[in-house]
């Protein structure tokens, strides 16, 4: 079958969903399907488009057996909400135009509707094609919790767009159980939801030596490294990590390392400067090829979310940490999906969010007990290899596509 995939991020972009969709597209192509993906030029997380990708034309290429169609975007500072919304609007319009002449059988649409409402309306609803709608964050709920969506009209509009996307899809893919109540509230039955956890490149990301080129390059080989690698955004609650670093300032061999970029970077750097935190080190976002080295440098890897945010998703970095064989220190809501995943896999320690003292105590406990770190890391590795491989994801989505096609054919025949 010919599968069309709509996603804002695709490699070499650096968004957390980019490697997921890239691995999925390649996996589906390897299973014998024709795969086309409509995405954007690289721009995440800064919003700035590399010079080689600037211009007004739609770019088409074949990458690892996948037809990749890239929609142009203006190069803007993504820290400003207005700029992000403008980029979303440009993608929505460009994606609908890019898909107009394509012939395809089934569509996978990456949420949220802020990104893909118009392409779904044009390429799914208008053309009568079966679709799977993939929920990565629950909108408008997450925007309300972050204080981005305040006006009742905006909230109603986004809620209506989400309902439209879900109503027009044969199935709604959720990445964690915690999405069920929110998706149900938007009128979707449990029978229509399909749980498929996120996946990780278990061939690329694997246990590696602690003393590696990345560690030596940044003078970390002889430090006890507490690592956060990923988006330095507004929902991660990283200020509380820095507060824990302040409590551990006298532990000279402990280094807090934040690798990445995002809307919260300037605020975090300002905090470090104001509190003179010499035990905190910022490192720019690294190429994906270096991710195994980055993760291997850690003695402990952090998964953090603000209070109330952890109930809405499992950060994709969680699966990468599991695959790296490093223990997880999760500062997330109790009984949220990230909390339950770490507990069920026995891969780390969980503490409530916004608890710098408890975070500092957990770091010291892991530092003292190397055997515990090794056991937790080994447990996480087994979990990643068994349940979160790209091959497993491709098989599950293939079944969803076949079911969607069968349902659509039945409706057309009836």
Describe this structure in words.
This protein has 15 helices and 14 strands. By secondary structure, it is α/β, with parallel strands linked by helices. It has two domains: 2-199 and 389-413, Rossmann fold, CATH 3.40.50; 213-387, Glycogen Phosphorylase B (Rossmann fold), CATH 3.40.50. An eight-stranded mixed sheet has the order 3-4-2-1-5-6-7-8, with helices on both faces. Strands 11-10-9-12-13-14 form a six-stranded parallel sheet, sandwiched between helices. Helix 9 (265-275) links the parallel strand 10 and strand 11. Helix 2 (81-98) packs parallel to helix 3 (113-125), helix 3 (113-125) runs parallel beside helix 5 and helix 8 (238-247) runs parallel beside helix 9 (265-275). It is globular and about 70 Å long.
């Amino acid at each position: 079958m010919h599968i069309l995939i709509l996603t804002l991020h695709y490699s070499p972009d650096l968004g957390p969903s980019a490697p997921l969709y890239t691995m999925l597209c390649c996996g589906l192509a390897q299973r014998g399907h024709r795969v086309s993906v409509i995405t954007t030029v690289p721009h995440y997380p800064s919003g700035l488009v590399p010079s080689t990708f600037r211009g007004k034309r739609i770019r088409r290429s074949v990458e690892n057996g996948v037809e990749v169609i890239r929609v142009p975007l203006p190069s803007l500072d993504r820290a400003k909400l207005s700029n992000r919304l403008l980029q979303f609007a440009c993608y929505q319009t460009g994606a609908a135009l890019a898909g107009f002449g394509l012939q395809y059988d089934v569509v996978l649409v990456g949420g949220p509707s802020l990104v893909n409402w118009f392409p779904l309306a044009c390429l799914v609803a208008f053309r009568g094609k079966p679709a799977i709608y993939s929920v990565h964050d629950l909108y408008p709920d997450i925007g309300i919790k972050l204080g981005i969506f305040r006006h009742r009209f905006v909230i109603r509009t986004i809620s209506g767009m989400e309902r439209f996307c879900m109503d027009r899809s044969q199935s709604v893919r959720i990445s964690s159980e915690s999405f069920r109540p929110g998706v149900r509230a938007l009128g979707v039955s449990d029978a229509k939801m399909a749980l498929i956890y996120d996946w990780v490149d278990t061939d690329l990301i694997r246990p590696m030596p602690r003393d590696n080129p990345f560690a030596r390059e940044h003078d970390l080989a002889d430090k006890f490294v507490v690592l956060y690698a990923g988006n330095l955004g507004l929902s991660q609650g990283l200020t509380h990590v820095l507060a824990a670093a302040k409590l551990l300032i006298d532990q000279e061999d402990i280094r807090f390392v934040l690798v990445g970029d995002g809307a919260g970077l300037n605020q975090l750097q300002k905090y470090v400067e104001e509190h003179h935190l010499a035990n905190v080190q910022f490192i720019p976002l690294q190429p994906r090829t270096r991710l195994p080295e980055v993760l291997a440098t850690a003695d402990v890897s952090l998964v953090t979310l603000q209070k109330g945010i952890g109930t809405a998703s499992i950060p994709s970095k969680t699966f990468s940490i599991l695959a790296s064989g490093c223990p997880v220190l999760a500062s997330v809501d109790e009984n949220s999906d990230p909390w339950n995943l770490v507990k069920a896999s026995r891969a780390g320690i969980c503490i409530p969010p916004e608890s710098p003292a408890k975070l500092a105590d957990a770091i010291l406990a892991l530092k003292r007990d190397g055997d515990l770190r090794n056991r937790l890391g080994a447990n996480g590795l087994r979990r990643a290899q068994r349940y979160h491989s790209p091959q497993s994801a491709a098989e599950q989505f293939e079944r969803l596509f076949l079911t969607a096609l069968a349902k659509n054919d039945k409706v057309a025949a009836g």
